[in-house]
Design brief:
The protein is 33% helix and 22% strand. By secondary structure, it is of the alpha+beta class. The chain has 2 domains: 140 residues, Lambda Exonuclease, Chain A, CATH 3.90.320; 100 residues, no CATH class. It has a 5-stranded mixed sheet, with helices on both faces. β11 and β12 form a beta hairpin. The two termini are 34 Å apart. It binds iron/sulfur cluster (2 copies). One iron/sulfur cluster binds next to loops.
Length: 276
């Protein structure tokens, strides 16, 4: 990320102590900040809320989830006019998941306009169905052995869309890059009864499935989006055809000089396209 984006995140972070201080000044007690939650049966799904507090006059007997955001003037006005549920559904879902994890019934959404310092607050009541649906969706993605379809936003699919711009998997999703070599990307990895297993070794995997690969790693064809040119049954290899026409044995994809070779092939292909 470049400096401007990092400063933008920093601007969001500097608001948090200010808002917490404002809440204390009206008599609210902050119980916790940056509380970290982990989904019990799928620990790869986790998140941290901005805080939990008690002592709000509107909910004197409730612990309340706190979630703080910043916005530019245009976005701020839209949230004020439409409300969080319709204007910021991602924030709404995020808060419901946190309330689900923390067993809370209500949350306070605070958004600060970065340009005018205005503050908008909204109470968000816990909706169990919203949290369960989001968690089920996340688990389905985590446990899937296929790359999920690209997000289609208001203006179609684009790696520069606001949904995708911070995604770590843009290169894989949009540029046919090579996935990380580990058990999770291997053809032999399967999810059975919510547990990952290796079909070749029948070895148990932990749920996060972050393991180094073994010599029999072969990319899952639903994760490496390349054509299969041939299959070497005897050696348990797949012969891949890259999007730029190169032919690669699966063992080569794990070798250290692969990246260089693939990059050269890609550049040569793009040069030919430009010539035409
Ligand atoms: S770039 Fe990331 S967020 Fe966007 S569609 Fe692909 S995987 Fe999903
Ligand atoms: S064959 Fe090796 S790399 Fe593939 S899932 Fe099994 S242990 Fe992991």
């Amino acid at each position: 990320m470049d400096g401007r984006i990092l400063r933008l995140f920093q601007s969001g972070n500097v608001q948090e102590p200010r808002i917490l201080e404002d809440l204390k000044n009206i008599g609210v007690t902050i119980l916790d900040t940056q509380t970290h939650f982990v989904e019990p049966d799928c620990p790869i799904i986790s998140g941290s809320c901005d805080g939990i507090a008690v002592g709000f006059p509107e909910y004197p007997d409730e612990s309340v989830l706190l979630e703080f955001k910043t916005s530019n003037t245009k976005g701020f006005k839209k949230i004020v006019e439409t409300g969080i549920k319709l204007e910021k559904p991602v924030h709404y879902i995020q808060m419901n998941v946190y309330m689900h994890w923390a067993n809370l019934k209500v949350g306070l959404y605070v958004v600060v306009c970065k340009e005018t310092d205005e503050i908008y607050t909204e109470w968000v009541n816990y909706e169990k169905e919203v949290a369960i649906l989001a968690l089920d969706r996340a688990k389905a993605i985590v446990r899937s052995n296929q790359i999920p379809p690209k997000i289609v936003g208001k203006h179609g699919s684009s790696e520069n869309s606001k949904e995708c711009m911070f995604c770590d998997y843009k290169d894989l999703c949009y540029h046919n890059s090579i996935p990380v070599v580990n058990c999770r990307t291997c053809l032999h990895c399967e999810c059975v009864n919510d547990k990952f297993d290796c079909a070749r070794y029948s070895e148990d995997f932990d749920d996060t499935c972050i393991k180094t690969s073994c010599e029999y790693h072969v990319f899952n064809p639903y994760i490496l989006n390349w054509d299969i040119a041939d299959i070497d049954v005897e050696n348990e290899h797949i012969i891949w055809k890259s999007p730029y026409g190169g032919i690669y044995d699966s063992s080569l994809l794990q070798s250290s000089d692969f990246e260089q070779k693939y990059q050269k092939e890609k550049e040569a292909y793009l040069d030919v396209i430009q010539l035409h």
